[in-house]
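Sat 14:20. Reprocessing the chain from the morning session after the first attempt stalled halfway. Input below, unchanged.
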Amino acid sequence: MKVLIANLGSTSFKYRLFDLPATADDSGDETELARGGVERIGAAESRVYATVGGDAAEPTVIETVQPVADHAVALEAAIEQLTADGGPLDSIADVAAIGFKAVHGGRVSGVVRVDEEVLAAMEEMAAVAPAHNPPYVQAMRQLAEKFPSVPLVAAFETGFHATIPDRNARYAVPTEWLEKYLVRRWGFHGASHRFIATRLMDLMDRRPLRVVQCHLGGSSSVCWTKDGESVGTSMGMSPQSGLPQNNRAGDLDPYALLHVAKATGRSFEDLLVELSTRAGLAGMSGTSGDMRDLEAAAANGNDAARVAMEVYVAAIRHWLGGGLVELGGLDAIAFTGGIGENSPATRAAVVAGLKDLGVEIDPAANTAAAAGERRIEAARSRVAIWVIPTNEELVVARQTRTLLADR
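Finished this time. Tokens:
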């Protein structure tokens, strides 16, 4: 079964094409046939790239530079690449479904076939997911019109966090806010956290298995899991919340917004744009939101970069401590994402000084020039410390297959 997975960012688009066994119970390999995407959507020049051949020793790499107006055009460009001479598809009809790593459906969650009800639910939450929901809705509508025979499936990031108990999901707001306006902690990065939780259940025999999962990258979140299920997460009503992000503020007292609005005469909308585009690590440091740049700047004596990194680490540690208490102990800590996988300094800072809690990192293993899945705790650490590359698109492909098989 061939499944095409679409992952949309604010100005980017990534895809992967998988060939999966027809059902989860079937034997056979899960093969990645191709991957690619588009960068700088909406700009004068957009980079369109693809790697056809998946894990083959010598894949075919295709790169072009052209203007790509929107995400629907980007997805159509991907389909053209995949169906070109020598591509893995003869036509789009070879695809059993197009699965979307959708973000926020509000009243609609889990894995569903895309229809007008689903699109309306996504539009209802567009104000709290402005960088994600509008381009997803536009792309889904245009593809449904152009390829009506191909099922479109939305796997919502919020679905993994449906198991969070009310004590960790509710805000202390009037009940009407929850019931009418869906104001609660929804949680995001669901595909990544699902992949890590599932992988750790395979890797570790201990039950119950209590884990704090750190998805750290341009967008970051912490998730507490018990036996593979989410019981708490740092992101809340919107993907703009929780930990500081590369250019987003994360959690903020709402009265700070009111204070600045009154002091400057600027609108809430204008201030929210600033908080979601010019804040976070970039805003604090005055340089960059990229951890590599921040580490280099701090090493050269840039105090603002050093403080930005310390604020970021302190927020992660806050949620690490909360998870330890909520779970009643800890069996593993997992790092994933661009920062989680590639920044030894961040990993070391997150777990520093926790020997009395049974958490101790092995400095040599942590800083070793290694890649892929690995353990980096010291021999005497009671808590396992993992680095696990995530695979969000594979999770969505599996979810898409399961939905099709159940219909």
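The longest strand covers residues 31-39.
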